[in-house]
Amino acid sequence: MEEIYYSSISSPLGTIWFASDRIGVCLLRFGLRKKKFLEVLLDAGMTPRADLEFNRGVSEEVNAYFEGKVTRFSSPVHPRGSPFDMKVWEALQRIPLGETRSYQEIAQEVGNPRGCRAVGGANRRNPIPLLIPCHRVIKKDGGLGGFSSGIQIKERLLRFEQQVTRNQR
Question: What's the total number of domains in the chain?
Answer without folding.
Answer: 2
